[in-house]
Amino acid sequence: MTQVRNFISDNLRTILVIVSFVVTLYVQHVSNTEHINELTRRCQMLEVKVQDQYERIDAIKLDKAVFEATMTQFTSLQTDIREMREDIKELLKQKR
């Protein structure tokens, strides 16, 4: 028992430095773990935002495709109406 007391008293400074070092390492570990967890949460939030943006882009592409199809149909209808007008004009000219 006295040997342990003598050892502690003779090496008190070294023991305190080692204990301080270990405590500091533990505090850094806890702090870094929390920081990693926070970065993980932020990364997940960003992934959700990116996925939402991709969904919006897909919706815009779909809207564009629908618009283009509608415009193609509109052009076709417009051409058909012009032809019908010409045919009607020709019929009216022939009846006179």
Looking at this protein, list some descriptive labels.
96 residues, 97% helix, mainly alpha, single chain
Overview of this protein structure:
- The protein has 96 residues and is an all-alpha fold.
- Helices cover 97% and strands 0% of the residues.
- The chain contains 2 helices and no strands.
- The longest helix has 84 residues, at 12-95.
- The radius of gyration is 41 Å and the shape is rod-shaped.
- The mean pLDDT is 92.
Helices and strands, with pairings:
Blueprint: H1 2-10, H2 12-95
Q: What string, H for helix and E for strand, traces the elements in order? A: HH
Q: What proportion of the residues is helical, as a percent range?
A: over 70%
Tally the beta strands.
Answer: 0
Largest sheet: none
- Uncertain runs are none
Q: Write down the Rg.
A: 41 Å
Helix- and strand-based class?
A: mainly alpha
How would the global form be characterised? rod-shaped
Number of helical elements: 2
Strand residues, percent: under 5%
What is the average per-residue confidence, as pLDDT, rounded to a whole number? 92
User: What distance separates the N and C termini?
Assistant: 134 Å
Brief synopsis:
The protein has 96 residues and is an all-alpha fold. It has helices at 2-10, 12-95.
